Amino acid sequence: MNVNGNLPPSESSDSAEEVRNFFDKFFTHEMTFPAAQIDAVVGFFLKRGFQDQSAKSTAIIILTQCRIDNINPFVVVDTLKKLDETQLGEVVTQIMNLYREKTSALGYKTQIIEETFESRNIAQ
Question: Which backbone phi and psi does 96 adopt, to 5 degrees?
């Protein structure tokens, strides 16, 4: 029974509290990045028409991978600047698919052009 009173709540003396705290934080891994890198990569994607949350999540994935591969993120951004809108969308889709659960994947539509004997007689 919970009774509200003037006394502060008592600390739980549960012996499993330490174990619970350990496993609650087991899959969280904090990484920090310099503000200039975050601003540059997020700004790049915002300038290309990405929504705010999409720009941030894509930027964090790129920054994380740059740290793993020991690559300067500004070099990656300079490389991405050379891509047009369609190519950038395909690259971002591939990056996001690598970091997604394997039960789902993002895709993009490609136009299939079939050259068949019958199609040459059809006026378009």
Answer: -65, -35
* H or E element, residue 66: helix 52-69
Phi, psi of 101 (to 5 degrees): -65, 150
Contacts of 54 (CB under 8 A, 6+ apart): 45
Question: How many Å apart are CA 89 and CA 83, to the nearest integer?
Answer: 9
Where exactly are the structural domains of the chain?
35-98
3-state SS, residue 102: coil
pTM of the model: 0.60
**DSSP code string of 10-26:** PPP--TTHHHHHHHHTT
Run means of pLDDT, 10 residues per run, the chain, 124 residues: 64 71 70 89 93 91 90 93 89 82 68 66 61
H or E segment to which residue 92 belongs: helix 85-98
